[in-house]
Structure formats: C-alpha cells, structure tokens
Write a structure and sequence with these properties.
elongated, 5 helices, 85% helix, mainly alpha
Length: 172
C-alpha cells in the first residue's frame, strides 16, 4: 500500500477504487440480467453492462494521462454490494418481488457510484485535470440517468409485487 500525502494521491487512490468497482460490476451485471423476470429490467441491466464497460475505458484514459496504472486496489464496498445482489438473486420470491429486490440492489450500486464519481470529479477540477473532469462528469450523468431508469422500473414492478401480495392474502 502506497503512502497518501497529497490530494493527487487521494485522487489516484479513489480512481483505482472506482476502476475496481466498475470491473467487478462488469462481471456481476450479466447475472442480474439473467435473474430479472421483467424483459425491460433484463434489457436495462444489459444496456448498463455496455455503459459500464465504457466507464472503465474512460477511467483507463484518465490513468494513461496521469501515467498511472488503474490496478492495485480492490473496492470492498462494491464487493459487498455485489454480494447483496447475489443474495437477491438467490432469494425465493415471486417474479415481481424478485425484480424489486434486484432493483433495490442495483440502486445501491448506482448511489455508491454517483458518490464516487462526484468526489473524483471535484478532485479533478481542483487539480486542474479539466479533460478528466469532463470524462468523470459524463460518467456521473450516465450513473444518475441509470438510477432514474431504475426508479421508473421500480414504480411499475413494485406495484406488481404489491398486487401479488394482495392476491396471496385474499386466497388465505
């Protein structure tokens, strides 16, 4: 582990954390897509997979400009969030309830990424890394848009899960 003394050191450390998060997510998103019962939700996870690959590529561009390697750090937060997603996948649940669980797990991931990209964009601006700040802002906006799409999907899927619950309780 290297010593962190300057804002540039913090910036690089946080970029490595995000890179690890994105590469872990590239492996996890196909599993979420496969577990989703809603075709719209599955398609959303597949679309976000392609976007996530682009996020990792942008980070690689930033590392190239900094003459740094993107590897060497494991994002433990993303590892935990992905484990929660795996628990949602393994849950015995009705189709709509399963999708609601998957959306909840995915939104936690998005909120983590939104926080991370907002932070490193601020660092990039403070350090005069204007090109990096633009790339990070682009990714940040894509993460916010994905979160909004998940919220929209949740609004219909959560109603379906609630309707299934009401149907079950009427049968009792």
């Amino acid at each position: 582990m290297s010593k962190i003394n300057t804002l540039r050191d913090v910036y690089i450390e946080q970029l490595k954390d995000l890179y690890s998060a994105e590469t872990q997510l590239v492996k996890a998103l196909p599993k979420l897509a496969k577990a989703a019962t809603s075709p719209e939700l599955a398609r959303g996870f597949e679309d976000h997979l392609e976007q996530t690959k682009g996020h990792a590529e942008r980070l690689e561009q930033i590392f190239d400009k900094l003459d740094e390697e993107p590897t060497g750090k494991k994002c433990k937060a993303m590892e935990g969030l992905i484990k929660e997603g795996a628990e949602a996948i393994a849950e015995k649940a009705s189709p709509a309830a399963k999708d609601a669980l998957l959306i909840a797990a995915a939104q936690r991931v998005e909120h983590y990424e939104i926080a991370g990209y907002g932070t490193v964009k601020t660092y990039a601006n403070l350090l005069g890394e204007k090109e990096a700040a633009k790339l990070l802002e682009q990714t940040l906006q894509e993460e916010v848009a994905t979160d909004k799409k998940l919220t929209q999907a949740a609004e219909s899927i959560n109603v379906e899960a609630q309707d299934q619950e009401e149907a079950v309780s009427h049968r009792r």
